[in-house]
Amino acid sequence: MARPRTPIGTYGDIEFTNLSNGTVRARVRFRDFDGQVRRVESSAATRKLAEHRLKEKLSQRAGSNRGIGELTPDSPFARLVEVWLGDLDLEGKIAPSTRALYERNMHQLVMPAFQHFALREITVSRVDQFIKALATTKSYSTAKQARTVLSLALGLAVRYEAMAKNPVRDTVRLRKPPSQALALTVGQVDAIRGAVRGWRRGPGVPGPPPDGQLERIIEVMLGTSARIGEVLAIRKCDVDVTGSPATVRICGTIVSPKGQTTHRQHHPKTVKSTRTVSVPSFTAEVLRERLVKIAAEDPEHLIFFTRNGTPLTTNNVRRRLRAVLAEAGIEGVTPHSFRRTVATTLDRAGGADLAAEMLGHTSSEITKAHYIEPDEKVNPVTAEILEALAPRMREAD
């Protein structure tokens, strides 16, 4: 029967020898990371000191032996970041936009705090203080994003055996501050429509008038619940206005990866987000108008596009909307505000499950937590039920 091998990084009994020069030698057989067994020894004036020095040497040896290939405990954090980003590209499991976001958050939020440390110097305490400071000086969202990329990178270091454990996992959990989704009222929606429709139009305004796409994009967002990138990715072949109601297939999004041209990605944010939605008449009217404009184009042609026929970028649409509303004195409205408005309207009429289905969410819990404005009104049927507690007339004595 084969004798079981000693585990990596362990040693057996220590042998002590009194040397002729009056010192004591402590020696042990140690199994290195490469699987080879070697003798390690240390000498000192006393047996206890020799043993102490030997154990220090073994500890250093075990630490230096850890790590696979490119990463060791002494590797600088910056080197880990290089290997981690390369690993993300090698796996290819995340969208290019997510890859770009991870890299940006790592370089802007995390690197300034850890770039001068070796991996062995990154402790739970150091990480915990860093995340708490970000949450205090910046925001919960910023701290959460930094925590995510730092945990992913240090997780790779653990897999390379350059770190014994991921220190991010032992930090205090971030507590999200209380917040609630805010939907637009019908009056606010009409005010936004008016501001966009009248922007840079009229006598005395220099330059050509706007092309009118922004107000039409808003109508499509309100009628489909789609994200801004998904609306800009709608093609001629995705729209069917022959039936009643008209339908739109949400099956892509516009992305602008770093170093690449803006283009249509052939799937939306999630698998569940691919859906065909029926749209109200005001949205159908806008889509018919756009289809007439591109009647001669091929089925893959985008509904909304630049003067050169290229995809509109989400950042440019957001920037234009922000500028228009700022001139009108309207604050706090983003493309996502329309998505929350749709979710809240559908919830009031048909419940959270219907709203989640329309928005392309995997669970109505997501929709309720982030998109539906809480309803403070209690069902008025309670008044009828509580009539049972009304005081009864006393009979006359």
From TrEMBL:
Record-linked InterPro entries: DNA_brk_join_enz, Integrase-like_cat_sf, Integrase_catalytic, Integrase_recombinase_N, Integrase_SAM-like_N, Tyrosine_recombinase_XerCD
Record bears the keyword Methyltransferase: no
Annotated Tyr recombinase domain residues: 179-384
Gene Ontology BP, a term: DNA integration
Gene3D superfamilies given in the database record: 1.10.150.130, Intergrase catalytic core
MF (Gene Ontology): DNA binding
Alphabetic keyword roster: DNA integration, DNA recombination, DNA-binding
Domain of life: Bacteria
Region forming the signal peptide: none
Protein family per UniProt: Belongs to the 'phage' integrase family.
PANTHER family, alphabetized: INTEGRASE_RECOMBINASE PROTEIN MJ0367-RELATED, PHAGE INTEGRASE-RELATED
Protein name: Site-specific integrase
Native species: Aeromicrobium piscarium
Upper lineage: Bacteria, Bacillati, Actinomycetota, Actinomycetes, Propionibacteriales
